[in-house]
C-alpha cells in the first residue's frame, strides 16, 4: 500500500535521507559514551591524579583537544540536520538538495575540518602507541609512518576539493581524492590493528608459559586490552564506510558520522587505560606484572608470614628466574593492606 504522504522524490533520495537520519541518531549514542570516557579521563588524570601518578599534562591537553573537536563536529552536524529536515524541508529537491547546496559554506566545512584533523590526531596517537609497543623501533613502523603522511596529504586535498563552490564529498573531483584518503586511513588502522594484536597475543602466550592460569588476570593479556589497544572498533566501522563510499552506496552516509565518533573514541579509550595504569608501556614486555595475593595473619601482634599451598617444582622455579621483583599485597587483621617486595629465585624466595 502506497503512502499518500510520501514526498515526491526518487527512491534513492528517500533512502539517502533515511541513512543520514539513522546514522546521526546512532552517532549521538557514541558521543554519549565518548563524553563519559572523557569525564573519567579528566577525573583520573587532573582531579584525582594519585591513582595514575603525577599529572600527565600532555595527555590531558590532547584529550581536551580531541573532545573539543568532536563536540564542535557533533554540534554543527546536529545544526545541519535541523536545517535540512525542519527549516528547509520544502526546498525543491528535499533536504538532501539543501544540504548539498550548503556544502561549501562554513556550516559544513568546519565540521568536516574537525573530522579530518581529528583523524590525523587519532591516527597519530595510535601510531605512537604502536611505536611504544614495539619499543620505538622505527624500522618496524616505517610503513605505517609513510601511510600516515600520505593520509595527511590526501586529507588536505579532500577538504579543499569538497569545500569548492558546487562541490561536495560525493562529487567526482572529491571522490578521486576521497577514495585514496579513506583507503589510506582504513589501511593504516587495519595495519596498526594487526601489528598491535599480534604483539599482544605473543605477550599473552609468553605470560601463559610463565604464569599459567594466573596470566589471564593480567590486564595486558585480556581480549579487551587487545580490542582497545588496537582500536578494532574504528577499523571495523571504517572498513564498512569505505566499502559503501567506493560503491557510491547510501550505506556510507549512515556510517560516516559513526566513523568520525569512533575515531575520536578509540584514542580516548587508550588514554583511559593509561590513566588507570593498565595500558602497555615501553617496559611492559621486560617486567613482570604486579600480582595481588591475600595472606592470612595468625594474630594482630604476630609477624607477617607468607604461606602458600603450592609446592614449586624445578621447572616452575626456572620460570620465576625470568621474573624481577614482584610487589605482593597482604591483608592485615584490621582489613588494610600492606605491601612487600618478593624476588623469586631457584633456591630462595626473599621478602623485603
From TrEMBL:
<feature type="transmembrane region" description="Helical">
    <location>
        <begin position="59"/>
        <end position="81"/>
    </location>
</feature>
<feature type="transmembrane region" description="Helical">
    <location>
        <begin position="223"/>
        <end position="243"/>
    </location>
</feature>
<keyword id="KW-0812">Transmembrane</keyword>
<feature type="compositionally biased region" description="Basic and acidic residues">
    <location>
        <begin position="308"/>
        <end position="318"/>
    </location>
</feature>
<feature type="region of interest" description="Disordered">
    <location>
        <begin position="295"/>
        <end position="318"/>
    </location>
</feature>
<feature type="transmembrane region" description="Helical">
    <location>
        <begin position="255"/>
        <end position="275"/>
    </location>
</feature>
<feature type="region of interest" description="Disordered">
    <location>
        <begin position="330"/>
        <end position="352"/>
    </location>
</feature>
<feature type="transmembrane region" description="Helical">
    <location>
        <begin position="180"/>
        <end position="202"/>
    </location>
</feature>
<feature type="transmembrane region" description="Helical">
    <location>
        <begin position="140"/>
        <end position="160"/>
    </location>
</feature>
<feature type="transmembrane region" description="Helical">
    <location>
        <begin position="109"/>
        <end position="128"/>
    </location>
</feature>
<feature type="compositionally biased region" description="Polar residues">
    <location>
        <begin position="333"/>
        <end position="352"/>
    </location>
</feature>
<protein>
    <submittedName>
        <fullName>Uncharacterized protein</fullName>
    </submittedName>
</protein>
<keyword id="KW-1133">Transmembrane helix</keyword>
<keyword id="KW-0472">Membrane</keyword>
<feature type="transmembrane region" description="Helical">
    <location>
        <begin position="29"/>
        <end position="47"/>
    </location>
</feature>
Amino acid at each position: 500500500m502506497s503512502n499518500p504522504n510520501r514526498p515526491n522524490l526518487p527512491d534513492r533520495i528517500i533512502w539517502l535521507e533515511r541513512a543520514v537520519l539513522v546514522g546521526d541518531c546512532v552517532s549521538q549514542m557514541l558521543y554519549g559514551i565518548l563524553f563519559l570516557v572523557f569525564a573519567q579521563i579528566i577525573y583520573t588524570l587532573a582531579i584525582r591524579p594519585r591513582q595514575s601518578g603525577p599529572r600527565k599534562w600532555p595527555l590531558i591537553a590532547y584529550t581536551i583537544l580531541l573532545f573539543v573537536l568532536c563536540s564542535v563536529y557533533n554540534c554543527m552536524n546536529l545544526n545541519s540536520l535541523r536545517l535540512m529536515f525542519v527549516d528547509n524541508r520544502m526546498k525543491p529537491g528535499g533536504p538532501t538538495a539543501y544540504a548539498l547546496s550548503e556544502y561549501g559554506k562554513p556550516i559544513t566545512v568546519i565540521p568536516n575540518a574537525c573530522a579530518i584533523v581529528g583523524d590525523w590526531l587519532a591516527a597519530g596517537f595510535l601510531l605512537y602507541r604502536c611505536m611504544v609497543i614495539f619499543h620505538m623501533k622505527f624500522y618496524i613502523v616505517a610503513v605505517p609512518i609513510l601511510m600516515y603522511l600520505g593520509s595527511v596529504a590526501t586529507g588536505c586535498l579532500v577538504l579543499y576539493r569538497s569545500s569548492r563552490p558546487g562541490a561536495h564529498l560525493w562529487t567526482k573531483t572529491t571522490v578521486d581524492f576521497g577514495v585514496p584518503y579513506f583507503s589510506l586511513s582504513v589501511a593504516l588502522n587495519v595495519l596498526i590493528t594487526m601489528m598491535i594484536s599480534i604483539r599482544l597475543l605473543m605477550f599473552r602466550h609468553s605470560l601463559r608459559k610463565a604464569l599459567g592460569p594466573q596470566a589471564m588476570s593480567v590486564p595486558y593479556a585480556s581480549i579487551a586490552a587487545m580490542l582497545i589497544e588496537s582500536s578494532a572498533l574504528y577499523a571495523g566501522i571504517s572498513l564498512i564506510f569505505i566499502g559503501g563510499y567506493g560503491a557510491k552506496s547510501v550505506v556510507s552516509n549512515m556510517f560516516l558520522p559513526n566513523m568520525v565518533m569512533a575515531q575520536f573514541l578509540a584514542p580516548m579509550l587508550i588514554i583511559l587505560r593509561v590513566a588507570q595504569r593498565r595500558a602497555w608501556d615501553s617496559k611492559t614486555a621486560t617486567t613482570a606484572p604486579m600480582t595481588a595475593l591475600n595472606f592470612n595473619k595468625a594474630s594482630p601482634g604476630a609477624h607477617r608470614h607468607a604461606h602458600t599451598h603450592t609446592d614449586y617444582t624445578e621447572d616452575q622455579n626456572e620460570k620465576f628466574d625470568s621474573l624481577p621483583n614482584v610487589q605482593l599485597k597482604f591483608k592485615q587483621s584490621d582489613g588494610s593492606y600492606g605491601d612487600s617486595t618478593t624476588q623469586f629465585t631457584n633456591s630462595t624466595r626473599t621478602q623485603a
